[in-house]
Amino acid sequence: xxxxLAFEHASIAYDGRAGRQIILNDVDFSIxxxxxxxxxxxxxxxxxxxxxxxxxxxPRGMSVIDxxxxxxxxxxxxxxxxxxxxxxxxxxxxxxxxPMSSLNPVMPIGKQLMEVPLLHGETxxxxxxxxxxxxxxxxRLPAAAAMMERYPHQLxxxxxxxxxxxxxxxxxxxxxxxxxxxxxxxxxxEAAILELVRELRAKFGTAILFISHNLGTxxxxxxxxxxxxxxxxxxxxxxxxxxxxxxHPYTRGLLGALPRLSGGGRRGRLRPxxxxxxxxxxxxxxxxxxxxxxxxxxxxxxxxPILMVELGDxxxxxxxxxxxxxxxxxxxxxxxxxxxxxxxxxxxxxxxLSKEYKLTGLFxxxxxxxxxxxxxxxxxxxxxxxxAIVGESGCGKSTLARIVSGLLAGTSxxxxxGETDLAKLEVDDRPPEIRRQIQMVFQNPDSTLNPSHSIAxxxxxxxxxxxxxASGDAKTEVSKLLAQVxxxxxxxxxxPHQLxxxxxxxxxxxxxxxxxxxxVVADEPVSALDxxxxxxxxxxxxxLLEQSRLGLVLISHDLALVRHMADWVAVMYLGRVVEYGPVxxxxxxxxxxYTEALLRAAPTPDPDAAPPTAALEGMMPSPTEIIVGxxxxxxxxxxxxxxxxxTPPPVRQFGEHRIACHLELGRQAPAERGGRTxxxxxxx
Length: 684
What we know:
It is built from 22 helices and 28 strands. By secondary structure, it is α/β, with parallel strands linked by helices. The chain has 4 domains: 3-222, P-loop containing nucleotide triphosphate hydrolases (Rossmann fold, 3-Layer(aba) Sandwich), CATH 3.40.50; 246-327, no CATH class; 346-570, P-loop containing nucleotide triphosphate hydrolases (Rossmann fold, 3-Layer(aba) Sandwich); 588-683, no CATH class. The longest helix has 18 residues, at 187-204. The two termini are 49 Å apart.
């Protein structure tokens, strides 16, 4: 296997006003032709620096101070600017997390694709056009020739990412670097993109450096894995060896912090890694992870350099106490599942809720149609329990959350908190006591915290406005709130930018709790956090549910997280709830075909799992379209044309579990296929 990319004991430093800071320290790995290496680790561990160094895109002040970085045998440090220009985009290509960072919004995508061959030696525009159309077909975009004339804003997120992948592969590069390429995508689109990357890799023999914090995604697409911590490679090896027998405490910590589809619910706590990466850790003579490691011994771990140890078959780990780590018994998570109880008091009752937007002309003229964002939704949120709402982007999850929280008014139906109907009342029209009882936690805590005010101000303001506390009482309550979310009291005097992302999200949760609410609506509250920080926040939310007996409405596209946190689940498609019930029942057969597709597409950190299948073809219909039958019929693999297209689906009841579907759904055990358990409904 020809070597495409090699880091040979490479170290990279940043020289600034504060002196030299080590960014990467003795990083050593290689990727062969047609091979995929996954690079994982928390934020600031150095993953993106590796990608930039491979392209020689390091920012000003940052340089390679030791070792070498070679691409197809050539040391990139010795290449001239002209030689680099020929390599970038030709022999090495990169796909970023946000496809719009690679696409020009004012240029048709066809012209952008044609630029690649024209810049790298192709002079015939007709030939470049044909190559661009052929590559769009390779990435399975429909009507490729017509797609060439569209602008980026006319494509969905998944289509934009396919265009960027097509652009990266236009010159048939030897190495494709993918930096979090599926982070912002729905689970079904993510599965389709990963399947596409696997197929193209096999067809073109392209080597892949796949950077991600999602270990489930890495397990599904990569041959080998490298675990980075504070700029150092701490473990590397084949996917199966590392996932089955993680040997470095940090790798164990990452895997232990993951919620899983096969997990036992929030009563089985996740194991977050305590502490955070500090700048001083990069310069430690010994183990950078020692300050956070429960196995650390000062003499062995902190006073001398630690080398990689060969564990067999290419599996290496950088740890001075491997025997102690491997001999230790892991703390198994409790197996008790979250048990939804019909006897828990209902905090929020939603009945026949709908939300429509009337479209008008550009200047408010003639009406052009109606957007049906939410249609006839029925569900309940209970005290001390979590109601999770899942589905693809555009399914109506966030619209429903905004109606409940008062950011939008519903068009019809009921949203009852106690005996008060809130469906048509926006937050400014709600009584102060009702505003206090429903609070919201957003995906980005920065949207909650004013950067110009201290944490003490952010927490004391809702205490004064919602509970009418005097300044002295509010100050005391701020300390209690910080303790409730496991933050030290000195955090009160800090500004938001002085806190980590996980700390800011804890403050946002404390702010939501300040009014002593009955219901908290959390819209993707941990999707932007590292896996370890995410685990700590999920454990915290679980504790708050038990202690405060508040109700939690959780919006998420992460089904493993939902399986861990939820007691009840509502699956939404095109504004409708197609499946609803206790989490253990919704995640077991029988399934609605849409739920089944979501579960089959969900990534899992299991090296023995077969590759995911892109279970859904096509796009979700427009919410302006009038659908007489089943909303999912156009994409359903089990569609009964004469029924599904013309008749609304009946609601089938399985105890507390209900499914809106024409199919006769029967319970059966998951089918065994290809060495793994395949989740499937029995459809007769």
